[in-house]
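dumping this here so i dont lose it
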């Protein structure tokens, strides 16, 4: 396939280098444990702040909760 034959859309944009590196770096490592889906009530302003930071807000919320858990141990 030639590069000009690759169709890029908003749903399937070009992969960024960081995504490729992440996939390569994970090879040979243990599987990431699955996440659990929950319903969580948070203040609207807190959610809007996380969303305003861009895509991946749920991952960032998880990172903040994990940091609090580890700091509390």
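and the seq i came up w/
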């Amino acid at each position: 396939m030639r590069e000009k034959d690759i169709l890029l859309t908003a749903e399937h944009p070009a992969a960024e280098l960081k995504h490729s590196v992440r996939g390569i770096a994970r090879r040979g490592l243990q599987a990431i444990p699955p996440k659990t889906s929950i319903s969580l009530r948070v203040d609207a302003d807190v959610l809007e702040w996380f969303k305003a930071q861009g895509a991946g807000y749920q991952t960032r919320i998880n990172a903040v909760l994990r940091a609090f858990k580890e700091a509390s141990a």
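The two ends are 52 Å apart (CA to CA).
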